[in-house]
Amino acid sequence: MGGRLSQFLDKRNAFILPSLVLASFFIGLVALYFFSFVGSDGGGDGIVHAFSGRNLFSGKGFSIREAPQLDFPPLYPILIGIFWVMSRHLEFSGQIVSVLAQSFLVIPLYYLVRNMYGKRVALISGLFIIVCPPLVFASTEIRTEALYTLLLATSVSLGWKALHT
Predict the structure, then answer these.
(1) What distance in Å separates the CA atoms of residue 74 and residue 81, rounded to the nearest whole number?
(2) Which of 10, 18, 143, 145 could serve as a FRET partner for 76 with CA atoms 20 to 30 Å apart?
(3) Angle at alpha carbon of residue 57, lines to 53 and 61, rounded to 5°
(4) Rounded Cα gap, residues 55 and 136, in angstroms
(5) Closest by Cα among 107, 118, 112, 110 to 10
(6) CA 77 to CA 49: how far, in whole Å?
(7) For residue 54, which of 82, 96, 74, 75 has the smallest C-alpha distance?
(8) Would you say 139 and 102 are in contact if contact means Cβ atoms under 8 Å apart?
(9) pLDDT in tens, 90-129
(10) What are phi and psi of 144, to 5 degrees?
(11) CA-CA distance, 46 to 27, in Å (whole number)?
(12) Does the predicted TM-score (pTM) go above 0.90?
């Protein structure tokens, strides 16, 4: 049985990873439909990120309440602002950035686990990442956790590759 799975993974590697990403995106959208939160802490940070991104792309600068926003790094608000320009819905813009970051998290972790343990374990870990409740919940909030997890996993994966090439 293990031999068949290994052969399938060898032949279908280009199909498996996009399928995992799409499945993660679909689960994120379903979770977003049922669990729509600005933030589990009351949304304080998420509101600052969202308004900062909107203000940046509406010509008011990287600001909140007419003052420069100096508390948080700008990447997440910039991404929210990009999606706000397309949708004009501030809450949805922040949530879709988190859902997309969560969906793309499968890619660096799949490659990292594949290089460490093999394709079979990478597939199992990819499936776990897709349905892991804390990760799915984090993708429904306007918070930096999903994007931070993506960036952290990408840097660890690239660091592993750099050490082993």
Answers:
(1) 10
(2) 18
(3) 80
(4) 28
(5) 118
(6) 5
(7) 82
(8) yes
(9) 989 999 999 999 999 999 999 999 999 998 999 999 999 9
(10) -85, -5
(11) 22
(12) no
What is the per-residue pLDDT across 34-83, written as a single tens digit (0 to 9) for each?
876 655 666 678 888 899 999 999 999 888 888 888 888 899 999 999 99
Report helix, strand or coil for 164. coil
Which of left, alpha, beta for 132 (phi over 0: left; psi -120 to 50: alpha)? beta
Q: Give the C-alpha separation, 147 to 145, whole Å.
A: 6
Which helix (H) or strand (E) segment holds residue 116: the answer is helix 106-117
Contact 25, 100 (CB under 8 A): yes
Interaxial angle between packed helices 145-163 and 75-87, expressed in degrees from 0 to 180 and rounded to the nearest 10: 120
Contacts of 111 (CB under 8 A, 6+ apart): 122, 157, 161
